[in-house]
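Private note to self, pasted from the team thread so I don't lose it. Backbone tokens:
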């Protein structure tokens, strides 16, 4: 599957990160639940399904496109413009593996 992107809030449509650019990202990581299509495949039991979040910890800054983060972020964030909020659905082979 790779990565798919569902735009929640449009960005400026002009400024996109290029390979090696630093991006500031606010994120919440949820495990994929195939039975939850109406909830963007995120499990309804938040504490069980959420595995990580930057919210409340301050900005997460990283270079994009150079392998410093999972491939799903390298590919997905590169398609997002400045200010955009999106839900990235990332397959295991583009994240931490299929387990």
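Design output:
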């Amino acid at each position: 599957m790779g990565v798919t992107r569902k735009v929640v809030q449009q960005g400026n449509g002009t400024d996109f990160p290029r390979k090696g650019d630093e991006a500031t990202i606010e994120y919440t990581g949820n495990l994929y639940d195939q039975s939850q299509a109406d909830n963007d495949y995120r499990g309804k039991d938040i504490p069980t399904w959420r595995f990580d979040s930057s919210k409340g910890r301050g900005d997460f800054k990283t270079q994009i496109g150079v392998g410093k983060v999972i491939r799903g972020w390298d590919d997905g964030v590169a398609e997002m413009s400045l200010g955009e909020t999106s839900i990235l659905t990332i397959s295991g082979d583009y994240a931490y593996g299929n387990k």
